[in-house]
Specification:
The protein has 215 residues and is of the alpha/beta class. Helices cover 34% and strands 18% of the residues. It contains eight helices and seven strands, in the order ααααβαβαββαβαββ.
Amino acid sequence: MLELLPSRRKARFGDLDYDWEHSVDTTRSNVSFRTQLFTGMMARPYFASEPWLFAQIMQSMPIEFSQFTFIDLGAGKGRALLMATDYSFQKIVGVEFMPGLCRAAQKNIAGYSSDRQQCRRIEAICIDARDFQFPLQPLVVYLFNPFSEPTFAQVLASLRRSVEQAPRPVYIAYRFTEFESLLAQAAWLEKIAGTQQWAVYKESGDREIARDRVI
């Protein structure tokens, strides 16, 4: 009976409420031990983003969402992708290295529907984030600390090259700030918001874009 208590359930399995509400499978509770071990060795263990913190992060960005493409690097089973559909992004793209997690994200995308959904152009692709070619549109790049520090540095360098080749507004939303120093030390970025749990940076040459007041 103790194991049925909400506090014990969340301690063991993480945040299941979002999955139950939306009939999806994004929690880490049923990720195989092999996958968890591999992600822990190669990058960082998989955890799903908390809805209330994701909303905080989105609210901190002074942008018109309809002008931006949302990219989740290390998308896992796709919860952040689904939550991003509540905003009027042009497109939503998840980048995930682990085939099993990517397949789960694709299945969640295919079966997801919500009355709050504003973006229906959503996909998850299985690729190493270091090889990902960033779209040339204005971007919101979301990361739930998915990489080791060296990999994170490589991905940031790739994003910087993309911005240099095609200047455009770019925001980086970083959940769990273990390696925030990489962002803070980047001369091409400036911090615009943050707490102990997350930080938002933008490309320093970005022009000001008025926020969509409808969201």
